[in-house]
Amino acid sequence: MSADRSKPPAGGADYTVDELLAHSLAIEAEAEERYTMLAEQMEVHNNDEVAKLFRRLAEIEGKHVAKVQALSGDTPIPHIAPWDLRWQGQSSPEAPEFDDLHYLMTPHHALELALQGECYAAEFFADIAASASDATVRQMAEELAQEEREHVALVEKWLARYPKPDRNWADDQDPPGQE
Amino acid sequence: MSVDTEGTTAALAARDYKSSVKPVWCPGCGDFSVLSALTKALAEMQLPPEQVAVISGIGCSSRIPAYLNTYGFHGVHGRALPLGVGLKVARPELTVLVSGGDGDGFSIGGNHFLHACRRNVDITYIVMDNQVYGMTKGQASPTTAPDWSLSKLTPEGPGINPFYPLVIALASGANFIARASTSDPNGTARMLVEAIRHPGFSFVQILSPCVTFQPEQRDWKKLVRPAPVAATSDPAKAARRLMTDDNLFVGILYQGSREPFQPRLENRLEHPTELEEQFAV
Amino acid sequence: MSVDTEGTTAALAARDYKSSVKPVWCPGCGDFSVLSALTKALAEMQLPPEQVAVISGIGCSSRIPAYLNTYGFHGVHGRALPLGVGLKVARPELTVLVSGGDGDGFSIGGNHFLHACRRNVDITYIVMDNQVYGMTKGQASPTTAPDWSLSKLTPEGPGINPFYPLVIALASGANFIARASTSDPNGTARMLVEAIRHPGFSFVQILSPCVTFQPEQRDWKKLVRPAPVAATSDPAKAARRLMTDDNLFVGILYQGSREPFQPRLENRLEHPTELEEQFAV
Amino acid sequence: MNPASVSIALAGSGGAGVLTSGNALLEAAAQAGWYAYLSRSAGPQIRGGESVTMLRICNDPVESPDDTFEILMAIDWRNFERFAAEIPLADNALVLGDADTGPPPGFLTALPVRYHELPLKRTASGIAQGRPNMLALGVLAELIGIPLQTITDMLNRLLQTKGQVALDAGVSCVTAGMELAQKKLPAVQRLPAPAPRSPGERLLITGNEATGLGAVRGGVRFVAAYPITPATEILEWLAPSVDKAGGTLVQAEDELASINQIIGASFGGTPALTATSGPGMALMLESIGLAVAAEIPIVVVDVMRNGPSTGIPTKSEQADLGMALYGLHGDAPHLVLAPTSVADCLFTTQWAVHLAEALQVPAIVLSDQSLGQSRAVIERPADLTFMARRETPASVSDGYQRYALTASGVSPMAIPGMAGGQYTADGLEHSPVGTPSGSAADHAEQLHKRQQKLSGFNYGRHWADIEGKGDTAVITWGSTTGPVREALARRKAAGHTTRLIAVRLLAPAQPASLGDALAGVERVLIVEQCHGQQFYRYLRAHYELPGEVRTFCKPGPLPIRPCDVLTQIEDWL
Amino acid sequence: MNPASVSIALAGSGGAGVLTSGNALLEAAAQAGWYAYLSRSAGPQIRGGESVTMLRICNDPVESPDDTFEILMAIDWRNFERFAAEIPLADNALVLGDADTGPPPGFLTALPVRYHELPLKRTASGIAQGRPNMLALGVLAELIGIPLQTITDMLNRLLQTKGQVALDAGVSCVTAGMELAQKKLPAVQRLPAPAPRSPGERLLITGNEATGLGAVRGGVRFVAAYPITPATEILEWLAPSVDKAGGTLVQAEDELASINQIIGASFGGTPALTATSGPGMALMLESIGLAVAAEIPIVVVDVMRNGPSTGIPTKSEQADLGMALYGLHGDAPHLVLAPTSVADCLFTTQWAVHLAEALQVPAIVLSDQSLGQSRAVIERPADLTFMARRETPASVSDGYQRYALTASGVSPMAIPGMAGGQYTADGLEHSPVGTPSGSAADHAEQLHKRQQKLSGFNYGRHWADIEGKGDTAVITWGSTTGPVREALARRKAAGHTTRLIAVRLLAPAQPASLGDALAGVERVLIVEQCHGQQFYRYLRAHYELPGEVRTFCKPGPLPIRPCDVLTQIEDWL
Ligand SMILES: Cc1ncc(C[n+]2csc(CCOP(=O)(O)OP(=O)(O)O)c2C)c(N)n1
Ligand SMILES: Cc1ncc(C[n+]2csc(CCOP(=O)(O)OP(=O)(O)O)c2C)c(N)n1
Ligand code: SF4
Ligand code: SF4
Ligand SMILES: [Mg+2]
Ligand SMILES: [Mg+2]
Asked: Does residue C204 have its Cβ closer than 6 Å to ligand 2?
């Protein structure tokens, strides 16, 4: 039942400003936390290269959190329970899903995941911008979408540096349970 | 815990419930998602971490307490539930969660599962079900399919009827019964909140893939779907519904209203030596 | 064993299955009736006593093997089922019966009950249910009513949901499930014959009064009545029927057709040292 | 000379009421001011079996059965031969039976005893609601010299719920019994009159009840258990009592659950206990190891019965010692204690709670069927200071280390609810913070800490009961202390001093203290009630025993009697 | 002089394949004709963690790690410091790393070693499907002197299912590795060429596999078990093997089930075994007591890991000795045996099956992680005569007594199916017929019988490995035998003889035999791998130790090395 993570709720993306802020904050905070957890996983599994990438991505998302907070100015962003956040997928558009990880993954894989997340986020905000009735919402969403698009470009640039690994990349030389 | 400038304690965020210990789970393991859902649930409830205890047995999944900033107890294999029951009965004001794996809970711990459901102490039991013994490197657990032949111990498959946790929970009298999936961490978080809030024994089975020994479980996210009907408080209805269950419906199956088991704990003695009088000659 | 005048072995009578040991049970105890029904069942089947093994745990009811002229094993509390499973799997040609009490089988032995139902080895499990621990002088068992307050250990009653053995047996996958009552020893004998004949794991709960610690159970004979419908092989139907069960209907509830668990036990080696070749250098 | 004590056996079958009248006699003797000690033995039937009540009455505190019985009274003789070995009769003992219920067994009348018949049944049938056992009570009261008034007072209390008719019947029967004795029986030499006592000065209690009382006094407020003979009465007493004290008792589904429930409760800060017997204790060992590793205080009482396996569930033996000392896997230091008498069940259990809490460690208390199910008059214990007092951190801050290395080895323990103290208790080896660790250094450190907190603690004088002087010492433990003590008292009365060392703290071993206690000793006799010399092997393993060493080692179910010990010593010297 | 052995550590993380290439190297060395011994250590992660494979190659059979490593090769250095304590390096050791995966940890380069860099990753990336670990294999093969052909043959076998490309890649990598070594590395002193061997003369096997093999050879045809580290591989090997031999393995729901399933099967006449580790064994104790009382032969293998509680599940220690010896409640005599080497896992398990069956008693076999998970080249065992042969009644008639008192204490056991032999096996104390009995006489008789059948049996010379002469003796057991034996061999080479006594039969104790073995000894050193002196306490309890006694007692997880033992002896003398 996996739906498209990039989409706001079907037939009802008309967020208020508060809602938009709450959603964007949740999306960015989740992404920051997720990347931090993924970096830890790679550290524990001695995949330093990917760990560093995830740390870097976490930092970027951290800045995004700050950015959203800045957007809201002095008015506190209302809290929405995670399950009341509205989008079509089961998890937030931007953060990679836990089960997409592999301990032997390469930077290429990591960046593909990141790229997917950034694209989803960009589309998500773009969709809102396109369908919102409130002008402030439209403008804010467009701003956020633009930001995400910049990220997409950045990640695409990084990705170019890491060619697709050969298809045996996940071959485990010491498969578990072999002893 | 973040403190705002006025010096009053600000709201707790999910990350405030995480400890600094890094999980040893395999990247990709469903248990990460459970950890994330659980911290979200605790944050939503704004439970002070020191008022929460998370108790587990042994297994990959049972390592979860150390990754949380609550009180924790990583006990022995199969005995998490009685640890939790003892703690809750003696300290009813605490929020007690018990968590672990399908091997821990349904194989060696099966008896405690039955009797914890019956006893209905107000705790929440979270089983991260991956249909395998992850920690001991891939043997069949009670929920494993009879023809799963990847374990050296049962090279032709365990060959026995799987254990259906929700059915057993219902048959034994659990007060809240639900199934969640790691592919929906926010939905899982909500279900955990409801489970924790519901008085009495709450049981949440979470389909949590073992990417190492059951890699095909990555497909679960494509297969799970919401239960077609809402929670019921009628055991008979719940039972009927379970008959058509393919173990991939997620949602709250049953919410009962049996009174939780909780002795009063009220001292009625001036001094313990009063108890000697009955023997005095 | 009676031998007829021609020197050929005559039919075995029920008494040929009794040993010379006199039961220590309280006069009036339901277990006498179970003993009688069991010997009748064995006689009806004309099973050679040496081909039958009766395995038990600890409790008043668990004393039954010594009163029989079959092979017997009076094991430790709660572990009769694994003793029986091990014996049957290793010696499939024997008829293996496991018997005991509700405390032995559902409290300390609950996990083995679950897993024996699942494993479906071709044995018959007879539980003499008196809703009490007779042997240790009257404490609540899992099947005891929550408000039964005659035990000093639970002076206000155990206060917990009773264990429903038939429900759990069905939920865990037993292949034959029935309830009998000591007030009808012949009906019980017939049910035991059917249980023994039915392939796979057969479970028979026998309502067997403890006249000493549950004297009101003497009234069971007035209350039990035959199940209104015949046995089914459809678990869903059986489950529905259990929803209206008041635990006093006697009869066969369910007869399934799952294949029993029985490894082949077929030597494919000329000599065990063949197994060494894989290590040879 | 007046006799020092009188021992009476009261036999009967099928609801003859020998336990009721035995207990009534015990209570009356206690009310009259004597000390007394009652034990019983019964057939395998759940009810209606043959049984004997054995009572010893004395002017001084009594903790052991005597060598022989002066009086044997049978309401009937059914299956009496099964008890023959348990009731050695004194020469010239008074044997009383009722011809109407059948003749005494032949082996009895062949003994040098005085057999008398009493028409108990017939006399009782002449009294409305009359019962032979109440007549027997009257007979015995008269023989011993308990005044009718004392018995009447006691019956008034005992039967108050049964109504006036029952009470009248009781009094009539007792009176008739007294008359029968006066008319039909020779006078037996009576005990001296007891010293006057103020009421409430002493307790009439079983070892199992005393254990429960010690637990509550020590601070236990959570109990989880699974019934098992002969430990169940501890639980039966505790269920309402711990509830009154603001705690609770949970009947668990099995011993695996009960041990883990108490560990959970204690993790939560509540002193917790379970009681069981050998088979149940065996099931608990894995989780007791968890409490060792995670440093959670708990108390586990094992009321020993005859092993191995199910053994003889209703009889006494001291053969779980090895399991209690060594039964945990890995290096798992813990406490093992054993009460030395019915009275001491109270003290030792209370002390065990105190020590377990102070040292954050499991304490195993080895009682046995004989201590647990015997009922005795004991001195009322002082309000001892040994209470549960667990060290908790004065304040918890970010760097809190649950398993910090401290001078004593005991680390202050945060309790759920203390903000900032959050940690995860773990059975995996761990660092001082509690994080799992496979490092050799962490393992060595924590092994050392857990051992040293026990070995470095000052247990004071209670580690053993040490009495007497001389160059011969008897070392014993648990319920055999009573008969040994009595044997040595007899030797002393005969002018020979012998040392008694009854070890209360079995683990950790106290070699220096035992060394002191044995200074100057040339002969050591080791007395224990088991077959496999478990105590002797333990002593050899952990202590230096001076001079010549002999063992007296006899399995249950028969009790060791003072004369058995005396014979061992006298044959040697 | 040629070196006696060469020790190599191969480190790497995250699927670098150090186990695969370590095993390949082991196999190649074995094929080449050497003896070898491989062990490994890994982080707590289930997969992808850091790990080291440790290999020792030798001209003679080898049963112990050496004091130090001559060669350390790292595919990468991630988390290597965690293993530092496990890999003591020889002075001048060759340390090899790949600069492309990062520099070696500072503490390493500070040591007096020769550090060389090898471009493993880079070279591998130039080969289709090339892998650094295969290069490392080539480097090491070249250093040791294993011919390319031997490696190629071995790769042909190992990779046959992976296809030609993988095989070609393997061969290319190994060849490239050999060239790298020739070009970049100094020559190391090589072992002498191995003696020529006929194929199949020796086995390459882990202790766990050898245990399984011993079980099947002994006659075991039913196995029930619950997985646990580090015993699981016994079960993994047995599952298909016992099936081929006409038996079966059942994965049970828990250890309580597995122990009772094997008791049930053995009651039915089928020799039966389970394998577990400390925590699981603790759960089995109650039921092992049942097998003692009911006299049912079973074998329980405990592959020990670090305790207490969950401890360190993947590491080795000898601290379950106390539990194995004394952990049963009541007086419950049984057998405890321990293999003294990887090879001996086979013999000792087979002998245990034989003894258990002959004596109708449970036998506990104490292996440990180090024996169980090490893989070694061993001599192929002779077809030993120790087989399961249970005494059954020649004919059964009405008066059949299952627990008859016999001269040996062993009573012929009827097996279900034998007409007329019907009896009820019982954990309650019983009469010779098997009827429950609470009588003191029956209890004493059966206790005596059960003890005497063990103590009166002639175990022959296998009770211990006894080697050497002299007035100093080292007593040890289990896996520490290897390092002790090697230490004493070194002393002998230096002209000093020392006795070795490695006890294989731990219970029942054999005091007379040990007395003989110790004749003339003045100094005894006791060596064991635990914290609580369990073996020393056991020896004190059951044996007389002559002269001065010292103990060398070190907990896991670090192995005891020959030099540790040597130091102890040399510091003393
Ligand atoms: C008494 C005991 N028996 C066996 C084990 C070994 N053991 C550790 S974890 C485990 C199974 C874990 O499976 P599960 O509970 O499903 O957890 P997962 O690793 O799959 O999350 C087993 C058998 C043990 N630690 N203790
Ligand atoms: C390990 C263990 N725990 C507890 C006991 C004590 N015990 C003996 S029988 C029994 C309960 C028996 O109840 P049930 O099985 O219902 O049999 P019943 O006597 O009612 O026929 C208990 C708790 C024991 N023998 N072993
Ligand atoms: S082995 Fe399976 S369950 Fe364990 S951490 Fe890895 S993926 Fe998760
Ligand atoms: S106590 Fe109850 S169950 Fe036991 S023998 Fe007596 S009546 Fe039967
Ligand atoms: Mg699992
Ligand atoms: Mg019962």
From this structure: no
